[in-house]
Amino acid sequence: MTRRPPRPLDPVRLRPSLRLLDVLVAAALTLLLAPLLALLAVLVCATNGRPVLFRQPRVGAGGREFTLYKFRSMPRDSTGPGVTGVSDPRVTRTGRVLRRLSLDELPQLWNVLCGDMTLVGPRPEIPDLARRYPPDLRWLFRHRPGLTGPCQLRSRYYAAQLDGRADPEEYYLRVLVPQRAAQDAEFLRHATLWTVLKYIARTIVYVIRPALSGGGDN
Predict the structure, then answer these.
(1) Is there a contact between 95 and 73 (Cβ–Cβ < 8 Å)?
(2) pTM exceeds cut of 0.85
(3) What gap in Å lies between CA 204 and CA 200, rounded to an integer?
């Protein structure tokens, strides 16, 4: 049976200072990382073929859908659960490297520039899973999703919890979503410019650590 789309929610307006930070940081990183972005695009094309970018609907502020961009880490037309574990067989060899170093997320800088996402906020959810969220947690979709955030900084840990589950989506919705919502709620209560800057600094450490250690995470 086809599920009804979620009813519209009143979006929470992003503070002007945070939007200005989004534009400045995303624009600067896009220019600074342009050579790396080009290199990654060539690598994905050479090892996984085209298209280089993975495009997927995600739920934005107020429940409005937008197209999220990532470097493709799975074969074209791959099917399966809407969540991905660490050992998910759908992920290509190149995709595993991109995911471990969080490089697959870099095209989302464009989403930040466009205003679909912010630098720090809740993880952007796919519509099918969003429609299945518990009603008391749908408040999350009032907020603009983030490129990074408290949940994204534990994404490798959460992905590991999905490995070996008979129904990873059910476990994700029943166990992980409430945990993530609690972390997002704590951040959103203190979403100041200073807090956002601290999360950006923590994200840099999170991205660099696997490259220095060869993998592993909290």
Answers:
(1) yes
(2) yes
(3) 6
CB 80 within 8 A of CB 128: no
Q: What is the dihedral of CA 174, 218, 58, 8, to 10 degrees?
A: 50
Burial 155-166 (b: 16+ CB within 10 A, else e): bbebbebbeeee
* Model confidence pLDDT, tens digit, residues 26-44: 999 999 999 999 999 999 9
Give 70's strand partners. Answer: 54
Using an 8 Å Cβ cutoff, are 105 and 9 in contact? no
Give me 157's structure tokens.
């840990």
pLDDT of residue 2: 53
Q: Which residue has the higher pLDDT, 4 or 185?
A: 185
Cβ(218)–Cβ(154) below 8 Å: yes
Q: What is the mean pLDDT of the chain?
A: 90
